[in-house]
Design brief:
Number of domains: 1
Largest sheet: 3 strands, mixed
CATH superfamily: CBS-domain
Mean pLDDT: 89
Strand order of the largest sheet: 1-2-3
Distance between the termini: 31 Å
Helix content: 40-55%
Low-confidence stretches: none
Strand content: 15-25%
Shape: globular
Order of helices and strands: HEHEEHHHEEHH
Structural class: alpha+beta
CATH topology: CBS-domain
CATH class: Alpha Beta
């Protein structure tokens, strides 16, 4: 199964100068765990729930005064729509990430998450093996 068959195509994005307060509202309104930060159609970062917890809440920053660019994760790892699900899973396991933006010709075209992969009922053997690894990713 290819990533393009499973990925979410309507990825919600925001600008780097968006306040963290506004970003959190967008995440809550859309019931999503991350936002891709873009500028001039280029991915600049990704803002996850973990970023909000560690870089705003834990550090007691004011979310109305803090910009997304100050707390987002940069150096975003991306996948391609034509890669196999097991390849995307491997990238996610190797890099310990749960969300993988999908890019084609330098443009954001989708997003795939561990939840999306877990929902794939007709997974092939390689994907099933990787899902077992992913489910134990945080075990100490």
């Amino acid at each position: 199964m290819k990533v393009k068959e499973l990925m979410v195509k309507n990825v919600i994005t925001l600008q780097p100068d968006t306040s963290v307060d506004e970003a959190a509202k967008v995440m809550n309104e859309n019931k999503i765990g991350c936002l891709v930060v873009v500028n001039d159609d280029c991915i600049k970062g990704i803002l996850t729930e973990r970023d909000l917890l560690e870089r705003v809440l834990e550090q007691c920053k004011n979310p109305k005064e803090t910009k997304t660019s100050e707390i987002m994760t940069t150096g975003v790892i991306v996948g391609k729509p034509d890669m196999e699900i097991y390849e995307a899973s491997s990238i996610m396991v190797k890099n310990k990430i749960k969300k993988l933006p999908i890019v084609e010709k330098s443009q954001l075209v989708g997003m795939i998450t561990l939840s999306d992969i877990a929902r794939a009922v007709s997974a092939d053997k390689k994907t099933i093996e990787l899902m077992e690894t992913l489910s134990n990713m945080h075990v100490i």
